[in-house]
Specification:
9 helices, single chain, two-stranded antiparallel ribbon, alpha/beta, eight-stranded parallel β-sheet, 10 strands
């Protein structure tokens, strides 16, 4: 029985990849493993040499996993060839999962390099340990990303990109925006901008908002000029000020959840 993933030592560095291990069982196992695309899609920055070999040898769609908190100069030198190869294969990236304190320059470069529009990227998850505003490194590149095939978007501790091209992906089915501390009180994080963005997401099935966009008195007292219909929505989770929740719900048609 093989558990999907990698063995990680006490320093958080991948030591043994299970998909590599199965190729050493026997020649028949090796042939079967090499002929199975799903075994060779995960690109882990903590194991740059193996990931580079996988990236160069196989031509399958790939999933990127980046979870390095502090990048040493030694590790930076190790991942440089992998980053260069990813730039050459940017069109193969289907899933992009980043967890770190702040977006580093090489992740920023990857986000900048996606085709406009990208027709391969279906899943994007950016989770940061500290608040990131639109002016921070990498956030501008994230907001300008045009992902025509995007289906799942998870943003954690990032200023909501309501007015950005990122939320113009009509194919989006799952959207999570989570703010762990005080919601961003900026002009771009207003309920009006949020409603404009949500009105174009007709395929949305799941909406999770922790730290809602700021509503105004007009949103609460005046009759809504436009009611958003999200007929495919099956999951709705709102967390924030009661008035902000009420204002958002007033502008969404009754849901059959």
């Amino acid at each position: 029985h093989w558990k999907r993933g990698t063995e990680v030592n006490s320093c958080g560095v991948c030591r043994v990849s299970w998909n590599t291990a199965v190729t050493h069982v026997s020649s028949s196992w090796r042939r079967a493993a090499l002929d199975t695309p799903t075994l060779w899609t995960d690109i882990c920055f903590k194991q740059p040499e193996l990931s580079l070999a996988i990236l160069e040898r196989f031509q399958f769609p790939i999933s990127i996993h980046y979870s390095i908190n502090r990048l040493s100069s030694r590790m930076e030198n190790k991942i440089a060839p992998l980053c260069a190869s990813l730039l050459r294969n940017i069109g193969r990236i289907e899933r992009f999962d980043v967890t770190c304190q702040a977006l580093p320059p090489h992740i920023d470069l990857l986000l900048q390099s996606f085709p406009k529009p990208s027709i391969s990227l279906t899943d994007l998850k950016i989770s940061l340990f500290r608040e990131a505003r639109a002016s921070d490194v990498g956030i501008g590149s994230l907001r300008n990303l045009q992902a025509a095939a995007l289906q799942r978007l998870f943003l954690y501790n990032i200023e909501p990109p309501w007015t950005s091209s990122l939320l113009r992906a009509s194919s989006l089915r799952h959207l999570t925006i989570s703010l762990v501390s005080e919601p961003f009180r900026t002009p771009s994080n207003s309920l009006s901008f949020a409603l404009d963005a949500l009105s174009g997401l007709q395929e949305l099935e799941s909406l999770v908002l922790h730290g809602l966009p700021q509503a105004t008195i007009a949103h609460l007292l005046s009759e809504p000029s436009h009611i958003i219909s999200l007929s495919n929505l099956r999951e709705l989770h709102l967390e924030g000020l009661t008035l902000d929740c009420a204002a958002l719900l007033r502008h969404i048609s009754p849901l059959d959840l």
